[in-house]
Write a structure and sequence with these properties.
Chain lengths: 268, 632
């Protein structure tokens, strides 16, 4: 398998034997995985399986105690979150992390922070390159607004929106950074069926229209199985299965982790 | 400017005489983009020739489905350039209705706005034997479709440009073949009974009504209109597309259906036409926002609202306005009316019309009192949308206006309004017997509305001719009359009354979920959904009070004796109302049969299993228990 990532169906993200302990608790132990360019990769597992810890290690919030992570061939095991963001990885959070008092548009503009080049002074004067840059960023945000159908909410404070819409704005904020790898932490959590269907459609559209590689954590097995190219199943900090949704679904270990029995019954 | 015989000829003329003037604007990615008349003509030309390259020709039908976007208007005119007929359809129709219209109209090519509409068409493709091509305007999400009959709008235009270089005279020659009495538009009327009918309107029908409107109303080449009403409604074509082509005014397409109110405010159109539901929506919104304001602001608003009301009543009665009141009105204009007009986006509007259904007199007077030149227009699809208009100084909530010069109106013996004029349609598509039924021997169109002409010559509509009935004792009973009075309450969304052949009048009331919900919140009353809210004793009492108020103003025989609150709102998807929100009385009477029995059987409550239809056409049943109240 190709180790040097890049364009053309290579490995986007390589996780090699990573482990993480919190005090005496082994949150993640010796997990390896590869996310291919352009795919939707899902990490699933019961509560406390170590999914979010995995995501936090990829985005640099935690650093693994053991093992390595590389993005497009660059080792990012010890890289800071801000630098990882600048490399082209963006994420959303399980608990919404938006600026509640700012408008939807401003939240998206903030998402472009990592791409802004002009200094504080020229930005403050709003003159010359700073102005041109702002116009460019705004145009890009408008495309995202159109893409996520947020047109009527452009000027609405994010905090005033319904939960499902806030989740959508969060996706927008992550997209605004023009990531090459998008990490989604339970994008459908707490949503009703209709909101879930909308979100699934947007996630698929992002993947298909913009070719963005997506790694997502999700609790809702049904959704994951429908949209993912590959699924990794975790339990108690360990990888217990990996493969296509169909293969994973039929894996007895997965069934056991989810249902606590080896009865051959289909999951999800 | 020279008078032309067809709509495409006006387009060519405008592209010559005002090439750089704006013809159309659309809000795209947050910015209003302008298309000049020469852009407009270029876009139409490329698309028309692209259609020609796909084999579309004279008398072929072009289905159009989507919201108001420039591409769909260009498609409409492009079809007309080739002598074809555009058939705009309601985009929120359920699959069954959509399939009926597109099959019946024999649409050869369909232009769809986006993936959502494309999916709908693909799902009913098997029922459309005439369909050859499906063209989509917005490519988003369309990558993975491998249906071989799909093409993008841009592809078709590119093919059109190639076709143009190979056949340079084709476009002008095709337009030259067009005649005034060619069918230019096919609108399916939602119809309160039976399947929709395809109304065929000629260039002459559309243009003559456009000309009559322009002769009676102040329309100017630099006017701006907002194109926000469904393209399938004849008014959008006549008062948008046709007027724009006739005088060179600009049509502005909103960003999307959800942004219309904001876009209206940003644009500030110079004239606007809206059905009563839109005006009522604006008013309840205003009242809702008002209720959230500070006490001082509420007081100021209430005071000047009262001033406006008194001035308007005096004006209406033709009495002089005392100096003090006139002064208060001036101050009110500065402090309240002007800002409200601005908030609504009606600051620049020289005229505003309501039509399509009756409007509550209080709503009507409210807008007039606040300095908005709101008037009534009357028309229907079969007469190209225009019969009568109210002149500025004769606006009144009671009439639908003075029949326009050039359009004849007469009242038949059964008090039905009948019409003769240049706008009267060419017939229903492939339904000759229906066409014959709709026309008298002398060539008058039967509107089906019951009406009269008052002493000033204004037309007054009482009800649908077939709906006017009588109570058991012979007292005449016009259901709409009573329903309207109740519907003016901000807490009430829809009302269906019964009485024909019964001993007294009873009514089913659908509450306004938003305002009643807000009211419940203010009373700290918990509720889960519409059904739950509608059966709360407190809400029942609230509506009982509204009924009592209405009853007070009615003679004893015309009062509502019993009523109940529906556990779900009336919905076009359930066939209870039309897409233009008119009641389908026959259907409702059948569906709610047990309710009627309960009303007149002296029952205290009624249990009903209601069918609910979702947008994809699937159905579910919901059981509901509704309490019947005796009105005070």
């Amino acid at each position: 398998m190709n180790d040097t990532a890049g364009s053309g169906g290579g490995v986007k993200l390589k996780i090699d034997g990573v482990a993480k302990n919190f005090g005496g608790v082994r949150a993640v132990s010796g997990v390896s995985a590869e996310v291919q360019e352009g795919e939707i990769f899902a990490i699933i597992g019961p509560n406390g399986a170590g999914k979010t810890t995995m995501l936090n290690m990829i985005s640099g919030f935690y650093h693994p105690d053991d093992g390595s992570i590389s993005f497009e061939g660059t080792n990012i095991t010890e890289t800071k979150p801000s630098e990882i963001a600048a490399l082209g990885i963006a994420r959303t959070f399980q608990n919404i992390a938006l600026f509640r008092g700012l408008s939807v548009l401003d939240n998206l503009m903030l998402g472009r922070n990592v791409l802004m080049k002009t200094g504080v002074l020229s930005a403050f004067m709003y003159w010359g390159p700073a102005q041109r840059e702002e116009v460019e960023h705004r145009a890009r945000c408008e495309e995202i607004i159109d893409f996520l159908k947020l047109n009527d909410l452009r000027k609405t404070p994010a905090g005033a929106l319904a939960y499902g819409l806030q989740k959508r704005v969060e996706l927008g904020r992550a997209l605004a950074a023009e990531p090459r790898l998008l990490l989604l932490d339970e994008p459908m959590a707490g949503m009703n069926q209709e909101e879930k269907e909308d979100m699934v459609r947007y996630v698929l559209d992002v993947n298909q229209e913009w070719g963005t590689t997506i790694a997502l954590i999700e609790h809702d097995m049904g959704v994951v199985m429908d949209i993912s190219d590959h699924v990794m199943v975790m339990d108690m900090g360990e990888k217990i299965s990996q493969g296509t949704p169909d293969a994973v679904r039929a894996d007895p270990k997965v069934i056991e982790a989810y249902l606590g029995t080896t009865d051959h019954k289909e999951v999800a | 400017m020279a008078e032309q015989a067809t709509l495409p000829e006006y387009m060519l003329q405008n592209a010559r005489t005002m090439a750089d003037q704006p013809a159309m604007r659309a809000k795209d990615l947050g910015i209003w983009k302008t298309y000049s008349w020469s852009d407009y003509a270029d876009q139409v030309r490329a698309f028309a020739l692209g259609l020609a390259a796909l084999g579309f020709g004279r008398e072929d039908k072009l289905g159009i489905i989507g919201s108001n976007i420039p591409n769909l208007y260009w498609a409409q005119v492009a079809a007309q350039c080739l002598g074809g007929m555009p058939v705009p359809v309601y985009q929120d129709s359920i699959a069954k209705e959509l399939a009926f219209v597109l099959r019946h109209s024999e649409a050869k090519i369909i232009v769809a706005q986006d993936q959502e509409q494309v999916d709908k068409i693909i799902s009913i493709k098997d029922e459309l034997p005439n369909l050859k091509w499906l063209i989509y305007c917005w490519p988003r999400g369309m990558n993975d479709y491998d249906e071989d009959y799909l093409k993008s709008f841009d592809e078709v235009q590119a093919a059109g440009r190639d076709f143009d270089s190979a056949n340079s005279g084709y476009f002008d020659a095709e337009i030259g073949k067009g005649k005034a009495d060619d069918v230019a538009l096919m609108c399916y009327t939602s119809g309160t009974t039976g399947d929709p009918k395809g109304v065929m309107l000629t260039h002459e029908n559309l243009l003559s009504c456009g000309r009559i409107f322009a002769a009676n109303e102040d329309v100017r080449p630099d006017d701006d209109y907002l194109s926000y009403l469904p393209m399938a409604w004849v008014g959008d074509t006549v008062y948008g597309l046709v007027i724009s082509l006739l005088v060179g005014a600009t049509n502005n397409c909103p960003e999307g259906p959800s942004t219309v109110m904001r876009d209206l405010r940003e644009l500030g159109p110079t004239g606007i036409i809206a059905p009563p539901a839109v005006w009522e929506g604006m008013l309840s919104n205003l009242q809702l926002k008002g209720a959230d304001a500070t006490p001082l602001k509420r007081m100021v608003f209430a005071y000047f609202n009262d001033v406006a009301k008194r001035i308007e009543e005096l004006k209406f009665d033709g009495k002089a306005i005392p100096g003090g009141l006139a002064l208060a009105g001036k101050i009110g204009d500065f402090m309240v009316y002007g800002p409200v007009r601005d908030q609504l986006g009606l600051r620049r509007a020289r005229w505003a019309y309501t039509g399509g259904a009756p409007m509550g007199p209080d709503t009507f007077r409210f807008f007039r009192g606040f300095g908005i030149n709101l008037k009534q227009v009357y028309g229907m699809t079969e007469v190209a949308g225009l019969v009568s208009l109210q002149p500025d100084d004769q606006a009144s909530p009671d009439t639908v206006g003075l029949p326009c010069a050039g359009i004849e109106v007469r009242i038949a013996e059964n008090s039905e309004v009948q019409i003769k004029g240049p706008g009267v349609f060419a017939g229903y598509f492939q339904q000759e017997e229906k066409t014959a039924e709709a026309m008298t021997d002398g060539g008058w169109f039967r509107t089906g509305d019951a009406g009269l002409l008052d002493e000033r010559g204004h037309l007054v509509i009482i009800d649908r001719a077939k709906d006017v009935g009588a109570l058991g004792d012979g007292t005449p009973y016009a259901p709409q009359f009573i329903e309207l009075k109740l519907k003016f309450s901000p807490y009430i969304n829809e009302v269906v009354s019964f009485g024909d052949g019964h001993p007294f009048i009873s009514a089913m009331v659908a509450i306004d979920f938003e305002t009643v919900g807000k009211w419940a919140e203010s009373k700290a009353l918990p509720y889960t959904n519409y059904m739950d809210l509608s059966q709360k004793p407190e809400v029942l009492a609230l509506i009982a009070e509204e009924v009592r108020k209405v009853n007070q103003g009615l003679p004893a025989v015309s009062q509502i004796k019993r009523f109940l609150l529906l556990s779900k709102d009336l919905d076009a998807d359930d066939n209870e109302i039309t897409r233009t929100r008119k009641l389908r009385r026959g259907f409702i009477a059948e569906k709610y049969g047990p309710v009627i029995e309960a009303f007149y059987g002296d029952q205290k409550e009624v249990e009903l299993s209601l069918a609910v239809t979702f947008e994809d056409g699937s159905e579910a049943h919901v059981d509901a228990r509704m309490t019947i109240l005796d009105a005070a």
